[in-house]
Amino acid sequence: MGFRSILLMLLVVSICVSCNSTNETIKIKGSDTEVNLSVQLAEAFHVEQKSIFISISGGGSGLGIASLLNGTADMANSSRRMKLTEMELFNQKNIQIDSFIFAQDAIAFVVSTEIPIDSITIETLKGILSGSINNWNEITSVNKKINIYGRQSNSGTHEFIKHKLNIEFSDKAKEMNGNAQILEAIKYDHSGIGYVGAGYVSRQTNSNLKVLCIKENDSAKSVSPLDAVQIAKSNYFFQRPLYQYYKKSSFEKIKELLAFEQNTSGMNIIQEAGYYPINK
Description:
Elements: H1 3-15, E1 25-30, H2 32-48, E2 53-59, H3 61-70, E3 75-78, H4 84-92, E4 97-112, E5 119-121, H5 122-130, E6 147-151, H6 156-165, E7 174-176, H7 179-188, E8 192-197, H8 198-201, E9 209-211, E10 213-215, H9 228-232, E11 239-247, H10 251-262, H11 264-272
Parallel strand pairs: 1-2, 1-3, 5-10, 6-7, 6-8
Antiparallel strand pairs: 3-11, 4-8, 4-9, 4-11
């Protein structure tokens, strides 16, 4: 377990100090992309609302939605829209749900600085992630086998990339538990490529990592996932909304947290954490 993972666990524990099983404890589960941001928002919210405690854990968007369904979470963080099959499960249990988009994320594709490219086209990414391009010498001067680092199938980020590119991932792609693991792997594997939320790389100081700009085609302008101006204009191919799903019957319990995420303090935290506000 890396330092950041340990720090995250300590932050979650700190939020839950003295939190018992009362109705004032809000349980949030789901997206690994959203978990660090949720912790920061929850800490700041608890300073203002000391009687409300928040428990946060990751595990993937699919896990969060399943936890909402089985009653072990009050809110599900999800970096993708809920699937029709998932919505049907809620309907079968006569559970009415609602959703709230509280931020935008941009997926960053990361490689080692030893790979001599600064941008990559959508078609080339399709080839790499599907496995039809498997050596860097097919697009660069470096003769190294490409290793893919991604997320498990229950991850919203995995689903988003798969559907955005309309591909099936290579069966050789390595499935990692979270964004931090992907970055850590590429720090040591200089032939690797991986995808993570931009909020994770914006805080990186490791000089061995490089965020690739994305070109929709050979003649298009390259756009960085770290360019807030281009994100605000919706010009980045891999930007997406971040969702929080909840049962309508739980709204009174969570409404103050939702309001905090939309106010000036919440929006400042979202931006400082490397995410992007919702265009209004």
